[in-house]
Write a structure and sequence with these properties.
Elements: H1 2-8, H2 22-31, E1 38-42, E2 48-53, H3 58-69
Length: 70
């Protein structure tokens, strides 16, 4: 996750949430998070455009964010 966060620089806002605290738990329920780690990429309206569970695919994340930015 650190590498993805560094690679995206100022293009996006990255939020890390802990599913054991109240905010993290609420959002996990809202977005159907059932496994940790889970990475969600949301578009400007809050729609999930990419979901990755377990091992993260860095290139897929960069490609998805690039499409949203253009």
């Amino acid at each position: 996750m650190d590498g993805i966060e560094r690679g995206l620089g100022d293009q996006v806002e990255v939020l890390r949430l802990n599913v054991t605290d109240s905010v993290g738990r609420e959002l996990a329920l809202r977005y159907g998070v059932r496994q940790v780690p889970t990475l969600l990429v949301l578009d400007g309206s809050g729609k999930v455009v990419l979901r990755q569970n377990g091992r993260l695919d860095r290139e897929d994340v960069f490609e998805t964010v690039g499409k949203l930015s253009s």
